[in-house]
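Re: folding output
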Amino acid sequence: MMIMKNKDLLIYRIITGLFTIQVAGAAAVYFFNYEMVEQMFIQIKYPSYIIYPLAVVKILGLIAIWTKKSKTLKEWAYAGFVFDFILAISAHLNVKDGEWPGAAIALVLVLASYFYDRKVYGTK
């Protein structure tokens, strides 16, 4: 039983680490390459004034997931990421720019992270 739990914990950390790299990288691009992101947001018909707040919320969501200070906050962070990625996939598919796979990968990673989080840390 202990070996399975350690294996699940390792899988959780790897998946959540990959997810973190992807989300933190996107947030960094939002901060440090604003003009490029602004053009992308205009293309997918999103308002550009949400770029910085979205980057901040992504970082805060990662902190909520990794610190585990509040189970409710962690649940909201996971939910927020799921909504964000579903909306990103939809927006990219609507404008047919071919950029949806990144959001789809992020969606798979966040769902896998959530599944393994529940498996390792329980549903309490």
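--- second protein (sequence, then structure) ---
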Amino acid sequence: MEINNELAFFMRTDEEMFKLPLEIDKSKKIGLIDADLLDNGTRHPNLALMKISSYFKNSGNNLELVTNYNDYIKYDILILSRVFTFTKIPSFIFEKELILGGTGFSIENFKTYDLPNKIEHSAPDYDLYSDFVKDKIAKGDSKNKWKDYIDYSIGFITRGCFRKCDFCVNKKYDFAFKHAELNEFLDKDRKKIYLWDDNFLAYPKWEEELDKLILTGKYFQFKQGLDIRLMTDKIAKKLSKCKYYGDFIFAFDHIEDAEEIEKKLKIWRKHCEKGTKLYLFCAYNSQDENDIDILFQRIEILFRNKCLPYIMRYESYKDSQFEGVYINVTRWANQQNIVKKMSFREFCEREQSSKKNQSENCSSMRSLLWFEEQFPHVAEKYFDLKYSDY
């Protein structure tokens, strides 16, 4: 299913593949491919494809969502988008006229392009996935599994970020700026709003835009998280009074920011007691005992400030001898009902006790015991760490 080397070379040298025209021959049938959905599955609809669908439907073109790669033969033109670089694409679709896009191609020598302005500012076609989702629910999936496709208006009010994190694909701008009016993507019939802004609080007029969100009377959430390092008393007071959906989400990617982040969390907690999570990115700079140590250091800081972790692993963790440790620490930390009640050691012991064959250790216990034997100084500090102790 992966692109072979010959095709990868062809894609790198053919820039026309990444240019989406504003006009497509109306006699041609267009297939829209959400590559992440067809490969790995994804909880979120592809916003770019929804905008493309809206624009070309309004232009009178004949298009639909491709729900199976084997149907590619039905279409004259395929427009494929992928968000993740690891998403696989079958080579046979290159037999068709193909247009590619998305952050999933922001690697190697690919030169990608933004959507044309008229398409970028089209209202999303929220019906694009309707038949696909209805079919999944009819076959037994819960509506909750597909809630992002059903319940949410999705868009960006601002774009850009000045942080320039090494691991982030959004490095094009070094400041945050107004991208679109809320009404551009707001569907009044949808219950909630998802914002995918890169760094909303870095926009100088964030309060003005936040007031517009509040006036809708709908619950909303910044899905990418907010920048805790920009927290002030004013921001904390304002956010704490919003109809915010779910936990507030921030990020704590670098241990070097520990002092600043803890200071900002104290400001936050002074004004807001609502559930708060912080993304913890790991396995990027290294995949070793030091990275595990740093991960637990950040978890301890969050516990001290009544916050919970949400671990995000860089894909290179799979090539490390610590793969099992990364997997099981993530299983423990990312389940809110578990991490609030038990330490990592207690989690592994619970996993072991549920194993039918007690003559051998489960994967969780194996990873704990192996790491503890190799690096007892780290295990002693953190494996009995409990949220409830704080």
